[in-house]
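quick one
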Amino acid sequence: MNLLSWFDPWHSPLCTCPPKLTFNPYTGCDHKCVYCYASSYIPHFFDCRPKKDLLPRLEREASKLNGELVSIANSSDPYPTIEAERGLTRRCLEILTRQNCQIQIITKSDIVLRDIDLLRRVPSMVAVTITTDDVEIAKILEPNAPSPPMRLKTIERLAEKGLPVAVRIDPIIPYINENPETLVRAVAQIGVRHITASTYKVKADNWQRLSLAMPKTTEKLKPLYFEKGERLGRYTYLPKALRLKLMENMARLAKKYGVKFATCREGLKGLNTATCDGSWLIRQCASKNQAQILNEAGTDKHNHRLMC
Ligand code: SF4
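structure w/ iron/sulfur cluster:
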């Protein structure tokens, strides 16, 4: 099986992502988010391990690439705890940047800061997931992930270094984080230019974890999902009218604080003001670099194509 594949999440008709390759350096993830979707289809998911023969396989597959967009990662965080020591994601980035690939990183971890130098070599962006700015709730929902203040600091550092940053406020869960205005305001103030949001979708195993972690809340959520909700693909969704209300509120907040907004797999693309996954930031970064290269003709091309 190839490491690199075209992103097509379960052939979902609700996915509006542009064409991009996807790649996970690790199988599983130790952030242990209670709402995680990937744990329903990958055995022993929270026992994070590197992909077998990761680097030689990636070397082989990447040798055919030239400038494609590669999204890292969609089924697991590319910066789990062991990455600080193993450095495998960094080695993968070295391989992909040699092929001039455009890079989209999706993470909750500050370890990404270590790789700023590599990300600045090619058009790239980072999407940081923050579900809530409430430290106590985050500890329950994402017990092993870096805290929300740490993620905000990470965003600030990335933006300071000129890397375009999007934030995923995902999932939005009624009674928990349905109106994250303080979070939207905070991320807009530190340089985030795009927000993607999505409502929580029930899978058997994530529901079980959420029920154990927040029993009172899941009692209130139960009728919304299991009586009034709808089955779409492999997930149980909130009723469409409620999803629309929640996402309209997110679109309103994004507009209020001056950032682009998109929904993810909601069937509500009419609310989107930019490409859903924030990858438009890469194109903007690339064309700005192009202009810079032209302006700085005669200077070291490799260094200058990188700055956004
Ligand atoms: S960071 Fe993502 S992949 Fe990792 S446990 Fe959380 S939701 Fe799952």
